[in-house]
Amino acid sequence: MRKTDFAFWTFLFMTALAGATTLLNVSQTYSATSPNTSLYRQLDLFGDVLERVRSDYVEKPDDSKLIKNAINGMLSALDPHSAYLSAESFSDMQVQTRGEFGGLGIEVTMEDQVVKVVAPIDDTPAARAGVQANDLITMLDGESIVGMSLEDAVKKMRGPVDTPIILTVVRKGQEEPIEIKIVRDVIRINPVKARVEDDVAYIKLTTFNEQTHANLTKAVKDLRKDIGDDKLKGYVIDLRNNPGGLLDQAISVSDDFLDQGAIVITKGRNSEETQRSSARRGDLTDGKKVVVLINGGSASASEIVAGALQDHERATIVGTRSFGKGSVQTIIPLGTNGAIRLTTARYYTPRNRSIQAKGIDPDILIEQELPDELKDKTPPKPRGEASLRGHLKNKDVEEEESGSSAYVPKEPEKDTQLQFALNFVRGKVTAPPPKAKEETEEKQPETEAGAAKPDEEKPKP
């Protein structure tokens, strides 16, 4: 039924490009025999407004832009996560979820109207060409970056494989700008970062793209070999500031640590749209102790993983309350016209907890210790799903509240949450510090009901 309605709306909007009179005739024809008379009367109103704008606006408007903006307005009014994607935006989204593209291999940010290199990615054209962290890119193929947005600069640096580009960079210690010629290649973004922490395997998942499950499997295999099964005490899975991504990858990652049982339940508008994803036999870690780190930047797919492992008591969740994005978006392509991202379902943990606008409460609450320079400043109120205008309401909880601080120190030794998790896996601590324990006990009645804006990722050209 929804597909039919969507096709009809598309037909109406596309017809409007040829003139509002046709639109009115079509809507009136349908309204004469349809029970949705009120809807078609509203479409008559849309046609009246469209025609008045096209005929009387001070400048001749672009019909295509009018319709696209009307569609985007309709979708964005539904909830914060539904939107219209232009063909270009749709293509960019596909690049991000694939985790590979033609480019240079550098993480960048904008500083003082020039592009600053955060770091070159290992074994990429940029790294091999000698690009260094903190380099300031001032020109691309002889064109100044001043006045160019970061998004536009990134798009210019990306491109077909085997094509060259010249970067003009200003480097500290060099009197003159340096020109670096780089030939674009396939850049693969590894969403999994792993390292040995003595007798503990530390794995950070930065996003859930098409590479996440496969790279996690490889990371676990390599860590087990490096540490040795006899010495390995367990795993710390870091989901802090992971904004989510692909649902199927979240299911696969959860399945890696489970032998059986539900992983996530998605419920649409109608009961027949309810779907349940279950684990298959085989635990990638052979039952070793697992701690999952979350914070206010852990959203969507991250919360699916944390909720599944928490409900099955397969992992201990440590950190602070997650963002609380408990809805599923479906990408519906529109041919050459891009796509729409539409919220089509809510997801629930195996124990049927909706975390929409509530989030996942950790089993052990550990607040991140702030550095001295931040202690004197009043921290901004954490933004979670519950703070977003137009968010879907959660009828399962009395009070909507989600999100927490998303601060994570760069130095592992200063990372309060990480250090607690490592010691917990080793068995050196079995309970949180007194203050955190007291707060955890106060929140306990809420956890049975189930309780971020996700941090934006730095673009990687």
Task: Record keyword descriptors for this entry.
6-stranded antiparallel β-sheet, Pdz3 Domain, 3 domains, disordered N terminus, 461 residues, disordered C terminus, 2-enoyl-CoA Hydratase, Chain A, domain 1, 6-stranded mixed β-sheet, 33% helix, 22% strand, alpha+beta
Please provide a brief summary of the model.
The chain is an alpha+beta fold and 461 residues long.
Give the topology, please.
Elements (H helix, E strand, L loop, with lengths): L1 H15 L3 H12 L5 H20 L6 H14 L6 E3 L1 H12 L1 E4 L2 E6 L2 E7 L4 H5 L6 E5 L2 E2 L5 H8 L6 E7 L7 E6 L1 E4 L3 E6 L2 E6 L6 H16 L6 E5 L8 H9 L6 E6 L7 E4 L10 E6 L6 H11 L4 E4 L7 E7 L5 E10 L15 E2 L6 H4 L40 H11 L7 H14 L14
Parallel strand pairs: 11-12, 12-15, 15-16, 16-19
Antiparallel strand pairs: 1-18, 2-9, 3-4, 4-5, 5-6, 5-7, 7-8, 10-11, 13-14, 13-18, 17-18
Helix pairs in contact: 1-2, 2-3, 9-10
CATH topology of the largest domain, by name, is 2-enoyl-CoA Hydratase, Chain A, domain 1
- Profile the largest sheet: 6 strands, antiparallel
The helix content is: 25-40%
Radius of gyration: 25 Å
First CA to last CA: what distance?
A: 41 Å
Assigned CATH class of the largest domain: Alpha Beta
CATH A-level architecture of the largest domain: Alpha-Beta Complex
In CATH terms, the superfamily of the largest domain is 2-enoyl-CoA Hydratase, Chain A, domain 1
Sheet/helix structural class: alpha+beta
State the domain count. 3
